[in-house]
Design brief:
The protein is an alpha/beta fold. About 30% of the residues lie in helices and about 30% in strands. Strands 6, 7, 8, 9, 10, 11, 12 and 13 form an 8-stranded mixed β-sheet that branches. A 5-stranded mixed β-sheet has the order 3-2-1-4-5. The longest helix has 14 residues.
């Protein structure tokens, strides 16, 4: 299946591809490969796969969408850039999420600024599927200022494989290197970069204390501490802040950076391992977040979701 998001994040389209078409629509094609059929369009998306919105569809359309979601392969496309994802092929790697697309929209805005043409190299810390690195490489080439060098890192070997597969056919003359980081061993780079991007884990954990506000938010802390190794004086850092933990990390960043929000969106917190309350750890985690008022809570769930957050993609420049 393909999930196509429009440039302004106003709609999300679900498409059947190839052999999926016959299994979802009944239409038989002699040569199905290369064909697509639109199954449904969701307006004002809050998630890539909005289960609450799907459940409100007329039953026959709902079941068609549900059948489409059963297929293991997924392509996510935004602004002419796409990546293929499969949990079976890349275990533990998340498909591009609404955060990812909001991040890409912020990159698009950054690249619309005249001074962004100096960006010749970039570092992605925590690449996931590789969508954002692919987006940067393609879009910089389209505006006539291609990236010379990119370095991509993650702690998951399968994430690096996903990024390699996504980027290989579009990198052209861009030199791309990859590194597998080890947890707790720190970020290591040989040089600063013009652009650094990272979408860190942003849900603070129950063991947070006043003397360690970064508990569960370790990557924010490490990027901040190593920012002068990662960045030059003119470099840009793009990162994601969530209302869940913004009060813990944003003030420290403000001391070091000039900050500008490029994209902002209110979305559900849809991470079952945190919110489902199906384990002792989950119950403790949610209780901690609720006690410390870190979540926006819709107790009657009229919106279809109980827990909400505001995510922001922020441009950071050295003071």
């Amino acid at each position: 299946m393909k999930i196509r998001v429009d440039r302004h994040l106003k709609k999300v389209e679900f498409w059947a591809q190839g052999k999926e078409i016959q299994k979802v629509t009944g239409e038989e094609l002699r040569r199905p490969n290369g064909h697509e059929r639109l199954i449904h369009v969701f307006s004002r998306p809050r998630l890539m796969v909005d289960t609450a919105a799907i459940s409100r569809l007329p039953s026959v359309r709902r079941d068609a969408v549900a059948r489409l979601l059963e297929f293991p392969e997924r392509v996510v496309e935004y602004d002419g850039v796409s990546v293929a994802w499969s949990d079976a092929r890349y275990p533990g790697v998340w498909a591009p999420s609404i955060d990812t697309i909001l991040f890409a929209r912020a990159i698009r805005r950054l690249f619309g600024e005249r001074h962004s043409r100096f960006i010749d190299s970039f570092l992605e810390i925590g690449c996931g599927s590789g969508f954002l690195s692919k987006y940067i490489i393609q879009k910089k080439r389209q505006i006539g200022a291609p990236i010379s060098y990119a370095h991509i890192m993650d702690i998951n070997r399968d994430a690096l494989l996903s990024a390699m597969d996504a980027i290989e056919d579009v990198r052209g003359g861009t030199l791309v290197s990859y590194s597998l980081n080890r947890p707790k061993q720190g970020i290591k780079v040989a040089r600063p970069f013009d652009l650094v991007i990272s979408n860190p884990p942003y849900v603070s954990r129950p063991s947070s204390r006043d003397n360690n506000p970064f508990e569960g938010l370790f990557l924010y802390k490490e990027i901040l501490e190593r920012s002068r190794e990662l960045m030059g004086r003119r470099s840009v850092l793009l990162t994601n802040f969530s209302s869940i933990s913004k009060n813990e990390v944003y003030p420290a960043y403000q001391k070091q950076f000039r900050m500008k929000t490029l994209a902002r969106m209110k979305v559900p917190l849809k991470i079952p391992l945190i919110t489902a309350r199906l384990s002792d750890e989950s119950r403790k985690w949610v209780a901690y977040l609720e006690k410390h008022k870190k979540l926006m809570v819709d107790t009657r769930e009229r919106s279809g979701y109980r827990y909400w957050q505001i995510i922001e993609i922020v441009e950071c420049r050295m003071k």
